[in-house]
User: Fold these one by one.
Assistant:
Number 1:
Amino acid sequence: MKPVLQIKIKGMRCVTCATRLEKAIAGVSGVKSAHINFVSEKADVNTNSTDSQLPHKILEAIKREGYEGELSHQGLGEEGHHHEHTSLSYADFIIAALFTLPLLANMIGLSVSPYLQLLCGSVVQLWAGRRFYQSSWQALKHFGAGMDLLVVIGTSAAYGYSVVAVFLKAGDLYFEASAIVITLVLLGRLLEDRAKLSANAAVRSLMKLTPPTAFVEREGVYVEVLTQDIKKGDKVLIRAWQRVPVDGLIVDGKSEVDESMITGESVPVLKQPGDKVIGGTTNTSGNLYLEATSVGNQSTLARMIRMVEKAQSSRPPIQRFVDKVAGFFVPFVLVISLMVFGTWLILGYPLQVALIYAVSVLVVACPCALGLATPTAIIVSMGAAAQKGILIKDLESLEALRLVDHVVFDKTGTLTKGEFSLTFIKPLSGHTEDEILRLAASLQKGSEHPLSQGFLRAVKTPAFLPVEDFKSFPGKGIQGKIQGKAYALGSEKMMEELGIDLPPLRQSDQTAVCLAEESKSLLGVFYLSDMPRPHAREALKTLKSMGLKTVMLTGDKKDVAHMIGKRVGIEEVQAQLQPKDKINYIKAQEEHHNLVAMVGDGVNDGPALAAATVGFAMGSGTDVAMDAAPITLMRPALELIPEAFILSKHTFRIIQENLFWAFIFNIVGIGFAAFGKLSPEIAGAAMAASSIMVVLNSLRLKRV
């Protein structure tokens, strides 16, 4: 059984519902922890049991709390249950609105029969408002209290008083107050649901990217099958303007592929045999034939969706404080309402006046806006980042990013393209260029270093020699035996450690790699060049304008590092570093109370990425870099880094604004209602408006 289960939940109406459900799920034997995102209506359940019945037990616990749960298979194309829920809400709202209209006529002075008022008020209260009673009853059965309880108590008081007044034929009627409150709350929730759908539009867009069917080779013929039936190793045909169904490796064909929805890259990328393609991208011209490498939940798109949803479900420290406040907020409001009711009676006001003022307090105090303030901003922010090609694993990283003051870059593959070209060969000791190149390329064939590709591409006839006892020394070079002789290929530092005398080397922005044999004689020197990434200079300039210090940490020699640093406009260059030196630099900065963001390729710089406050992995979307750092750039574009910083600052500013206005609204609203300055109708409208305002404010993050 999976250690993490995702469950879709129907029926939650406020953050207190989610809090109560979390406790119920966490109480199931075999569950380590549970976290529910109220906005996306999904629960992430961490388990430590192999019990195959555990999912059923969790669903039963959800049902006992009065909600409906359904296991999410985290497949692509799932859109949740919002449509069904929204259609039911529309029906209830229309019924409530139709039967509230006659009561509005009574408010403007037109005479309406008390019995017609009773009929209309009862339909609204008992039918359209039944969900409030159902939710409140389930909460009370488990000694909980949600915002629905405030609506139930407030409207039931006004409705009950009016029913008694009709049959006693004495006193004013307040059917319109209870009916208007229920109608406005239903309207508010409809608008809130639509806004929440908009907030989560980015994830739903990603879910829709995988085509339902694809053409797969079966017994020599390409036939149309369901995408979910594609298996690793299958041969798949993608025609022009069709979406790629799975991750794969192109085996035939040549075309441009639009990767904008996955990586944020607006310009189609040329793909040919040997290139990787990502599921969900679009083939824009000729036919492509690929071999499926990652399918189903292992595909890049599925992993992206899981990462975005996980980030959307995380909570910053301020949200945990809000959750605690919401837990005792409803009982607190009930006490305030009773105090208001008693105070107005003591002051000599009629029962109905004290009742209406107490009802206004209950209605205006519903903490909907408080519960929506943080999660809506997070969902919009994570979605906006994903559409730009920025994958953020957890909210803590996004929160920490706004406090970072140093941005540290690796050079090769980060500030530069990492695609080295062999530009000059200097053979020594009577050897030819072809001889030493063949030896060097044979050694490099077992290396994963970016320099190796420069050697391999330069070999005209790739007849590699077998290598034995291959060893790699990070930051220095490689060693191995060819035809019984030991060879070393690496930096000047490696040659010095081996006791090999070096002639004066060319001073340039090129990287010098030396080849020596066991007799400690130098066979030759290779010069390779690596160009800075496009827009690197502009990205670094933007970071500096934001008050961030930029630093390059590289294992390359000083003159090459400083030359690249000068080209891209970086402030500080630290060269000839070992991987541990990069970690020591980061730790030294943090000891001086500087927070560091590290940008690397996600493989060689893994330890440094982990040591930094925030790590950025330069990924291609199909690389293991996606799992190497808290933040992954789906395309190697340095201009995405300033955008991540900007998004971080905007996200937490929006959260702070939402929480400020939610708290202020409740405090001011309760004050006005307690002093009789708000009618229940206006209180209901204000409460609904506050929730919508918070969601709309969060949607501003889409434009960041």
Number 2:
Amino acid sequence: MKKEHNITLKGISASSGIVIGKVFLLKNDDFMPTEEIYIPQSERAKEVLRFQEAIKNARAEMQELRSKINRTLGANYAKIAEVHFLMLEDPLMTQKVLEMINSGSKAEYAVDKFTKDIVKTLEVESDEYFRERVADIKEVSKKIIDNLIGRKDRKVLLENIGENKIVVAHTLSPAETVVMKEKFVLGFVTDMGGRTSHTAIVANGLGIPAVVGLTSITSNVEPNEEIILDGNAGLVILNPDKEVIEKYRQEIKNLDKATEELDKIKNMSATTVDGHNVEILANIENPNETNLVLSMHAAGIGLYRTEFIYFNRSDIPSENVHYEAYVKVVESMNGLPTVIRTLDLGGDKLTESDVLHLEKEKNPFMGLRAIRLCLKYPRIFIDQLRGILRASAKGKINLLYPMVSCVDELDAANEVLEKVKTDLRKENIPFDEDIKVGIMIEVPSAALISDILAKKVDFFSIGTNDLIQYSMAADRVNENVAHLYNPLHPAVLRLLKMIIDNGHKAGIKVAMCGEMAGSPFYTPILLGLGLDEFSVSIVQIPRIKKIIRSVNMEEMKKLSDEVLKCDDSSQIEQILKGIKFSEDIN
């Protein structure tokens, strides 16, 4: 049966760019054990050796990946492989797998069972970053299982792909992504994945357009079928007709011109046409991203996520572990500020890692997490604060508390901070006595008392991801209610206006580090609402800067006044779509 023309599938944009090409369908060969095979006591020692040999071989493959990425993209990107090394060395994994083997399980079944248990807990996590670590865990597990069952790596298939193809697969590893670049693959599309997966990060670094999270694209295409991959909009168009192909060819020409313009403005200030200046900072989660931050001429780091320090370990990270991670970043930032957010994990995650041992909560998203967890277990908080304060003697650091919901929590956190400062003074350990302290405004209660909180802190940073989903009572990763997660809902915009105005009345700056800040579509309205700082993913910095340099601040203020009078988000969206930008971006 002849396929319909211009079938459009919506996914997640993982790497920008538009390409037109033929499908190279990479079949999924994930290990799928159907039942546990019992092995007798006499064969278990041999099974343990099989597992250990598989770990050894997987480690060698990871070393090859690190070298390949290092040659292609440099040392910063090569650090991605370090996460996989840490997982391979994870004592918890080794312990659990060996326990299962010594209880009679085959090694491949034990590895797969351990992986599924970990994945099950991470897939319900509200933070996209943690959900996307699922791909890393599965990749490491697959490496081990491939070695156990003697399966050849799919990279062999990619070696013979030929040029100018668009790879369509269930999922892809960073190693496979690098191979695709070497073989001049145009782009890739996957069923699984998200924006912050390591494969997406590598694709961004290599400049390979990619759309992920399409769920079932592998079931809807045929080898050598022509498709259009729109990495800017997160779209894939199957069987495009001549008219659509020509439209996208013109769009590609326009993008080439736009890329040249973005390169020109990277080192320019984020100043509107009428002279209003704002700051654009970067969000990072890895200490090795600072070179990229500096190359984009960011005003600093607006959000340094510290949660990675707590992963793949069975103990509480020491003060020195914290210090070494932070000092590496601040020393390389050449005096530019780094905003370090304290632990923003739930107790359930630390329990799963054997760092804590807590009862399972029925609703962990609204349970013991972030600042609440730190205040209940001050030893965790104190070690991190000591590491942060010690590092503040080596560079400019601002401290950020997450998920503050009331004045009592802020006061309690500051009490701990003051005690840590007193202890460091007694020990003659230097730190920045004037370190600035801010809070994340991501809970509706904090937004509603932001006038009170603003008098007690040095700055606000709005976390729109949680603020929107808590305000709308809509889990943004739940497909049944995700449509209710709407940054342009009048209630959300009114909350943002309230927070920004209350911050300014108290004489403090207001930043935003959520996904809304990194979307060029929302930049005009955020400017009009009075936002002082945009903290965004590194790749978005020049795009946001271009929008800011293309608009008039006074007009954006009038725009925000108009928008705040609207009854529904559809009206607001139409107003934003009608904005006319200045052609002069220089």
Number 3:
Amino acid sequence: MKIRKELWFGFSLMGLIILAAIAMLVGADKITNGHIGLLMLSLVVVAIMLGFPTAFTLMGMGMIFTWIAYEENTQKTLDLMVASAFKVMSNDVLISIPLFVFMGYLVERANLIEKLFKSLHLALVRLPGALAVATLVTCAVFATATGIVGAVVTLMGLLALPQMLRAGYDVKMSAGAITAGGCLGILIPPSVMLIVYGATAGVSVVQLYAGAFFPGLMLAGLYIGYVIILAKLKPSMAPPLPEAERYVPLPPLLEKVAPSHGARALPTLLKALKGQRNAEVPTGYLLKQLGVVLLPLILFVFVALASYASVTSVPPVDEIPAMEVETTTDSGLAEPPGGEEEETSASGLQEPPGAEQEKAEEASASNVAEPTAAVAAAADAPTSKPAPLSFWIGLAVGALALVVYYALLSFTRLEVFKMLLTSFFPLLVLILAVLGSIVMGLATPTEAAAVGALGGFLLAAAYKQLTLTVVKESVFLTAKTSAMVCWLFVGSAIFSAAFALLGGQELVENWVMSMNLTKTQFLVLSQVIIFILGWPLEWTEIIVIFMPIFIPLLDNFGVDPLFFGLLVALNLQTAFLSPPVAMAAFYLKGVSPPHVTLNQIFAGMLPFMGIQVLAIILLYNFPGIGMWLPEVLYK
């Protein structure tokens, strides 16, 4: 029986782990509970690689080794299990997971991805490697809306891969674009992985979402830039589409109005309202088309007015409360006996009768006058201020872009814009509503997830896909995924408690601290370990097993857990793109034509893994990419 290369790799890796564990035990002067904890860690990794369920492996190993740590005390072991499970189930952050997952499954079943891919493909048709670029953009948008890697990769494998292969695209580049784009849902909010990390590390999920926004866009932009450059340098790998593929038919009524497909839409429609063609085309239809054409202008005017009102408004001055008049009788303080007489005798002068009363009245009048003057000043204060120069520059740039847009808007592009209106913009509004409400502090992640679930429900209804079967499937898959995540958390809590009880955490900390690493060396070491762990393990195992080991070390090196989480989130993209596990490759292989081999898919993913490493380096050298938005919004 011939064993595949992937199995040889997996068995070899397991053998190395077991040999390392044995060498650790043999080489130790004295075997302590900490060494037993590291042995437990090694056994868990091997058991998961053999295919045992992760959650129950963690729980089983945790219970066995907790029993050993408590010196075979069964009662304490069971108490720890119950306490760990209760701690996880009472975590409010986890409520958002089933809601986000439900939103994703509903959006997936609304059949938006086919319309989205087609409209983006036609909108980006003039770019080199247009099909691959459209694939990456579709994956980024759809992954943001769903966050379900397997669903995105599978659907894009069914939809985009055949089209790219028919157009003569290189198999490796096509497979790499689909798998890399599908994995963006791990990083780009609303990501379930960020929720899991936040709950594990005790970091605000809101700040994680804000921090992951720009790194996610950066990674997607690097993918797109790589594809465009490769297609430009090697056109044979991504040949331009023929004219037949770029043709967009016009509706029959619009054919009567348009002199040609390339004619400018706005002036032609305005002329048609008063011209002879209006006799053949209803005025209502022309006004409807004109309304679609003017939508960007209307949106621009609305945003410009709202921005102007925001930058020119002056916050009202709070009303100053009336100051209390201080008198000697109210103050509770009195001159010491004889103090006044001593003062007059020393000075040799004496106030005329009634002078003290006049001074008190003057002081009282001045105290009352001060708040009155302040209130009058507040009433006279300006209610607006001039708009800053940056506003006018932005307004000019926007107006110029709008002029260029209408100068280039042909009837063909108008049809593509309509397709985007029915596929891209509904998803964009849903994403902005969910993420915007979280990042701007209008809603908690759980509340925003509920809004997202309602939005997914309404989208499915709007596209006439909301059937009883769809709802049942979505609910079932949501319950299945949520149960998996929650059991993982329970298993992780029990495992982490056992590891800490055995002293494994202390042993690891002492080992790391004994190396006298700098902050940079520690970050490089931790990211290399996570990168290697991404080969045999998925991101769920890495987060729930190894993050509780890394997190306590961060304070020793002055590393912000939020920044560390962003580095880990970028790094964990490799968990779906690294052989031999590389689940994205298996998802794609399951729906690809027979002549597309698994080795070709793996080879196509390697350049995108290199781009991920580049993204990690960029984020480390320029931490503002991830930290700027959280600092602006929350600090």
Number 4:
Amino acid sequence: MKDFSNAVIECVPNFSEGHNMQIIKQITDEVEKVEGVSLLDVDPGKATNRTVVTFVGNPKAVIEAAFQAIKKAGELIDMRHHKGEHPRMGATDVCPLIPVSGITMEETVEFAKQLAKRVADELHIPTFLYEYAQANPARKNLAEIRSGEYEGLAAKMQKPEWKPDYGGTTFNERSGATVIGARDFLIAYNVNLNTTSTRRANSIAFDIREKGRQKKDEKGKAIKDAAGNAIWEPGLLKSVKAIGWFIEEYGVAQISINLTNMYDTPLHKVFDTACERATARGLRVTGSELVGLVPLEALLEAGKYFLRKQQRSVGVSENELIKIAVKSLGLDELAPFDPQKKIIEYQLQKLSAKKLVNMNLQQFAEETASESPAPGGGSIAAYCGAMGAALATMVANLSSHKVGWDARWEEFSNYAEKGQAIVKQLLSLVDEDTDAFNQIMTAFGLPKNNDVEKAARKQAIEAATINAIKVPFKTMELAFQSFELAKAMAEIGNPNSVSDAGVGALCARAAVKGAYLNVKINAKDLEENPIVKPILEQAERMNLQADEKEKEVWTIVLSKMK
């Protein structure tokens, strides 16, 4: 059986309680008690009377934490007295599992089924499977399963087509039912309107959602086909589910959206389309909010989109892109938006060991100067390369904003975007180089008491060493790529910053040659290895060519400074 100890899945249960923080805390306490699980986000909503919780960990730990949370919710939440704007059918209304790393969707489905069966068997809460965990196409959609909500659940479960997947048809008055499944990452997103009308919010929701609206005649009567089924007019946006509601807490109507595939329809397209449809109906979008966590990529792409609309360079820092996205989408209208708390990748970073790139300049210098052998020359070479690429990127951004060069903004934006990509990769190599060194040290520390252990230790040392060769080689490749950027900026960039392009080339040369030394020293006992040999040959070529590339840029820079 596959070892899932290093796999990571995300769980995002929705609990039918948004007012009583003591109840919410007792539920999330159950999650935090489970070793191997990290609670990332707790997002209660008063008007919806619902709390979205996000946690991650290895699959076995996650389904244990989910079970304990569902159990506690069943003890504390009485659905007979529950009211809220959001559709719901149970104390734990829905509990999706999302594969993050080291696990496939098919494998995640099996864990979802294990959880659903245990909830039904041990807690006597009927469970329905949905999305990838559900084999029946007619029962995959959460909205279809939840149709009729808690109030219609008892009768619905008696219908053969809606018998729960686990737990029989006996209605649990207190806890209702729970929907458990496996799905792709979903963005829960609300768009704020300058109206209190739920009907008008719904009209925009029907405009944009993929399902659209029922087709009606001029008298407002639903049109049906020959079989008596409703005819639907598709909406504008694929992979978008939406409804309108009024949020008393904020005093505004919202379009409540589930974006099930941000590649089919990006977040910024949802927002802009909602704005267009609101304007067409005499309304205005005033902002928006994210419920739970959002992938970093969604905000970065939104930031680039809005910068392009302004004809500004998109080759700016990650932080700047997020800032532009937050302001453009109005994500801070109802409450402050903290990227460190709302972006899933940033939350996951907190769980990892302290990174060198998160240190300030003084801390990094002091750590380098300490008695520890790492960070060493490889990490410094990567950082030097990042600074070189950053300087060339700076010239590109300055050039895109130069007075009189407005028509060339996109040309320089493209250069800046390429530069930012190189910077980001080189910064990641600062830590990767140190990690590679530590892996070698770990391999040398393996036991060698017998022939089997000795063979395993030797194999581990060789594998770690090859990795420690590949990492600085990657630094060489990336730093070498930045020569072209530095050269272009020296030739055609803002002449007032030509010296910066020159310094960037000097940093690139130092990075290439510094990383080359690390490739060489790590490869000294593996020069004939079939994996290492071609790497060495390419490294030799780049090492020699780096001098020529830097000289080309240097010559251009000096000629421009006369």
